[in-house]
């Protein structure tokens, strides 16, 4: 094994490049790699101190580790180029979050609170300026002024912009070299091991990775608040926002799960009072039903007694109430998330990054979306990611939701009637089962919310471990050649799995959000199973990022991006779908019409929903089927009355729900007043620090400083995210 290390004396390595060469091809690649590395790392090496190089070798494989560290001048230049945030003034952390204050007022012990050591200091910040360096806190300490994640970001940008060949051939950046296999890996280093030492140690002496593991990633912390400040400091805003959103969404699932469970239990308790089910069970051979398929035989209505009783659990007045409740829940959840997220105000100045293809950060299963995107030529990375996300979600939406939509709205709608059945390509159209389409939809949702989510969690737990095992096995011969020496930090990190990003994590939860809102009228227990899944999901994702993934480059973000737009679209679609589901798939409106027009206790309702087969029907002229038709197969007056009721219900349902949602949108401000004051203070401090004429600024801004200083203790946006 050949090990090469380039680092700055007295500096911490900011980034590691890894490539492998088999010994028999060593001479062929030596010259090419020397030129390539000079091109890719030239800016760093030329401005760095002399390099440190060590070499060892073996017969089978050569692994090169190139440790990079940016000097002060490079850091300062790119900090201004990338508009990194510089600290102006420390601000206090809030003592409690919202739930803690509520529990304190109720005199309830807060078991969710947990003391996490070494909480990062929060600052008022502004865009970095080299000419105003003396205005920023800690600028005299060149060694520690820039955070570790900022140094990672700067080195990553240098590597991403470096031209190593011909620019017209897009031979730019280490990302392409990774895609082409020239480099095996490129990653920043973790800050030490995540395992706690065998000896007793003070919590304040734990490294950042150990703190995240001990106070966040362990399964025993499933009910504790997430340490979002520490996550943000170690992984950056983008990953911290994902976990903040996931935690916030999971917390909001709790009331939805409680109400859904109550609705389901109330259905069990009132099952005995279900008159139509009693009539079906006691009918015996009174209702002889027509065959459901060409090769089926006639059957008695009493045969589906168990299905009729179970079907009531998913089709009773409580499910209608729950669908309305979930429509309000979905939009209110998004409104409050929008208030808590930094979407409305630019607290994190984002420079627009020119688009660079980095295909390894996206799942290979979405290659069809890449082919579509290559023809669009998006200019910025944000535009590219949003377009990619939208296209993949459309594909996945059709893939996951097509079957439930078919069962809910199309299956059994075009069957026809005995003697005149509808056909497609010469085959009779599929009809719903004896228990109806709604119970089939509930069965599908049960399988998705339990079976599929359980399989996904098992995969998330097993697959990273299998990949890590394969990586360690591939490096076993190299470790053996070291003669039992303790592996270095970069060697340990190379044995980990490459970080796969957040795309699949967001996609999984957003699809789940669709299932618990769009089809919730058919399965009230969906929020409960989503809540249980997400409790496990938070720990699985935390464990992957802390223990099993190489450290990703910290990325800045203002919000969850295009996913919020998709969530808003799903919440509006759920209102429409639930209205149609209640109107056309459930028996709520037919029962309501029968109560109003014929019998309030629903006696005779089963016979009301059945029609006799036409006399010309081959099997039996006395056979019955579920429809509002006369003996000739024509629709009865009741059918048209019921159709009018259904359409009226849809219009009323949508107008009432959307009107209330607009009121909620108006009542809940997108930006809290405390946050507006905090932003004004930050902008004032930024102007004060960056202005050339300080005296004129202080005179013109004295009244504003007096106004905002009274509110200097209000919560910051980041502390509001901590409430999730």
Could you walk me through the main structural features you see in this protein, from its secondary elements to its overall organization?
Among the domains are: 1-70 and 146-188, no CATH class; 237-270 and 316-586 and 635-667, no CATH class. It is mainly alpha-helical and 724 residues long. It is built from 25 helices and 13 strands. The two termini are 48 Å apart. It has a three-stranded antiparallel beta sheet with strand order 2-1-5. It has helices at 26-46, 72-81, 98-105, 148-161, 174-179, 208-217, 228-235, 237-269, 275-281, 305-311, 317-340, 367-374, 381-409, 437-474, 476-481, 489-494, 503-518, 526-548, 562-585, 588-597, 605-608, 637-667, 673-690, 694-709, 717-722, and strands at 15-22, 61-68, 85-91, 122-127, 185-187, 288-289, 299-300, 416-417, 420-421, 423-424, 427-428, 610-612, 624-626. Helix 17 (503-518) runs parallel beside helix 19 (562-585) and helix 23 runs antiparallel to helix 24. The longest helix has 38 residues, at 437-474.
Task: Summarize the SSE layout with pairings.
Blueprint: E1 15-22, H1 26-46, E2 61-68, H2 72-81, E3 85-91, H3 98-105, E4 122-127, H4 148-161, H5 174-179, E5 185-187, H6 208-217, H7 228-235, H8 237-269, H9 275-281, E6 288-289, E7 299-300, H10 305-311, H11 317-340, H12 367-374, H13 381-409, E8 416-417, E9 420-421, E10 423-424, E11 427-428, H14 437-474, H15 476-481, H16 489-494, H17 503-518, H18 526-548, H19 562-585, H20 588-597, H21 605-608, E12 610-612, E13 624-626, H22 637-667, H23 673-690, H24 694-709, H25 717-722
Antiparallel strand pairs: 1-2, 1-5, 3-4, 6-7, 8-9, 10-11, 12-13
Helix pairs in contact: 2-4, 6-18, 7-8, 8-11, 8-18, 9-10, 11-19, 11-22, 13-17, 13-19, 14-18, 17-18, 17-19, 19-22, 23-24
